[in-house]
Amino acid sequence: MRKYWQQVLIYTQYFSKVAWDNPGVLIYTVCLPLVFLILNTKDHFFQQLTLTQYANSVIPFIGWMIFTNCLVTVASIGELREQGYLKQYRTLVVNVSVLIVSEAIVNLILLLTTLTLIAGLSSLVFQLPFLKLIGWLWLTLGLAYIPVICYCLPLLAVNMRQKTLNTMVNAISLIIIVGSVAVSNLVVLGMSNIFSNVLSPLYLISNLFRMLTVGTASQYILTYSICLVILIIVGAWSYRHLKILPTEGL
């Protein structure tokens, strides 16, 4: 186990250096979400929002950002597979999960950085307390991160070429955001609805934030626990069926 975590540390440092040395990655994962946040919430600027209003107006966007970043992170492992690198890395690590965990840690660091900037912007334009807000956002991310990563892992259990993989990432992102908005406009889903929390990471993340800020923990904690178990099972199944060889080589 010690060797495993040593390798996780080594590859986390490697993937971090690759990410921070790539301006495109920083623009996409850190700067672009801030631009989208400004464009989508500018009508509420310099108005004092309540936590309920913030949860309804801003958190869905943050949930979408967290989900898409996790989806892209998992897809990057698929890209390594299709480029032939994954089968090479497998001979260098004690377990191929070292690569998944390392990429997930790097993505978590980037998301924490983005959420810090979002909290700073929100405290300025929505007149919310910075320290409390950043604490709530970080805790929401901490509770949502493992189930959302597990939600995305089935991408690695299916053979698909790199172009198909990129298409799937875009299609899944679009289906989740459009589907979540469409369903919320048609019906009112309660926080304790397990079906909606499992199928839509946006609902899961939004409900976690509400649980932390509006004091509905007693109503939601059981639902969250069930969703966590279900998604961990999905993630474990996906990992057991992880495809190592590139599709072109099959």
Describe this structure in words.
This protein is mainly alpha-helical and 250 residues long. It is built from eleven helices and no strands. It has one domain. The longest helix is centred in the middle third of the chain and has 29 residues, at 97-125.
Blueprint of the fold:
Layout: H1 2-20, H2 23-41, H3 51-57, H4 59-82, H5 85-90, H6 97-125, H7 130-152, H8 162-186, H9 194-199, H10 201-213, H11 217-240
Quickly count the domains.
1
What's the number of extended β-strand segments?
0
End-to-end separation in angstroms reads: 33 Å
Summed up, the helix count is: 11
Q: Spans of 5+ residues with little confidence (pLDDT < 50)?
A: none
Biggest beta sheet summary: none
Alpha carbon gyration radius: 19 Å
Attribute tags:
single chain, 250 residues, mainly alpha, 11 helices
Quick synopsis:
The chain has helices at residues 2-20, 23-41, 51-57, 59-82, 85-90, 97-125, 130-152, 162-186, 194-199, 201-213, 217-240. It is mainly alpha-helical and 250 residues long.
